[in-house]
Amino acid sequence: MKTTLLGAPIDTLTMEESVEKVAGFIKSGQPHRVLTLNPEFLYRAQFDPELMEFARRAALVTPDGIGIVWACRMAGRRVVERVTGIDLMLSLVHRAANEGWRVYLLGAAPGVSEEAAGRLCQGYPGLQVAGTHQGYFSDEEAAGVAEIVRQTRPQLIFVALGAPKQEQWIDRYLEQTGASVAVGVGGSFDVIAGKVRRAPRWLQRLHLEWLARLLREPSRWRRQLILPRFVWMVIKKYRL
Ligand code: UDP
């Protein structure tokens, strides 16, 4: 099921259904883009047509975080659950280990993607990691990185360059890599590698993960100023 929020398409699927959809993409062998849509991205897309295009071109757009789920409810749309980047990545890795899909980890600081891959292989025996690559490269180097990825013949690429850099890279280079699916996953490698801790489960259940993140990484406060503006935008559009 698909819905539209502030001009962007969103797939209102459970985690299980989202994974199933990705499995179909991989079976097809054709290139598909997956976007985990958070309030910040959707807010910025209102003023940046390139970002909105990324959402429209994606084969799967998941509601990343409670902000999007809340906004859908305000707009009277049915959304079953949030499907965040890291949760989707872990669910896909689990399935990949069972199915034998070759996965690639592109992004984060030097050493982090290797560390994350090592931990994933321990946690999900049988996982086939085609390769890893750090995420700090110039625009001139970006095509070369796609070529390095292609040579390892991955089927599923996790791209952790932060938004919207990861969406830009996926948009330009997915076909060149030969992979069937690329998913932008933000800071997930840092969490998996143990560099950044996720909020405790009870805070996640209270939907306060964003607050924990703000307290831990105060430098993010500027970015999070977008959240109240997003809330106001949603109320204005759908409730006033
Ligand atoms: N990153 C990267 N290359 C860059 C900029 C960032 O690989 O040029 C990585 C960074 O190390 C981090 C992730 O991208 O692992 C961004 O994490 P963040 O939590 O900021 O993601 P967002 O919230 O923007 O999706």
TrEMBL record:
InterPro entries in the cross-refs: TagA_TarA, WecG_TagA_CpsF
Pathway where this protein functions: Cell wall biogenesis; teichoic acid biosynthesis
Biological processes annotated in GO: cell wall organization; teichoic acid biosynthetic process
GO molecular-function terms, A-Z: N-acetylglucosaminyldiphosphoundecaprenol N-acetyl-beta-D-mannosaminyltransferase activity
Keywords per UniProt: Cell wall biogenesis/degradation, Glycosyltransferase, Teichoic acid biosynthesis, Transferase
EC number: 2.4.1.187
Catalysed reaction equations from the record: UDP-N-acetyl-alpha-D-mannosamine + N-acetyl-alpha-D-glucosaminyl-di-trans,octa-cis-undecaprenyl diphosphate = N-acetyl-beta-D-mannosaminyl-(1->4)-N-acetyl-alpha-D-glucosaminyl di-trans,octa-cis-undecaprenyl diphosphate + UDP + H(+)
Recorded superkingdom: Bacteria
PANTHER family (alphabetical): PTHR34136, UDP-N-ACETYL-D-MANNOSAMINURONIC ACID TRANSFERASE
Job description of the protein: Catalyzes the conversion of GlcNAc-PP-undecaprenol into ManNAc-GlcNAc-PP-undecaprenol, the first committed lipid intermediate in the de novo synthesis of teichoic acid.
Family recorded in the similarity comment: Belongs to the glycosyltransferase 26 family. TagA/TarA subfamily.
NCBIfam families, per the entry: wecG_tagA_cpsF
Name assigned to this protein: N-acetylglucosaminyldiphosphoundecaprenol N-acetyl-beta-D-mannosaminyltransferase
Upper taxonomic lineage: Bacteria, Bacillati, Bacillota, Clostridia, Eubacteriales
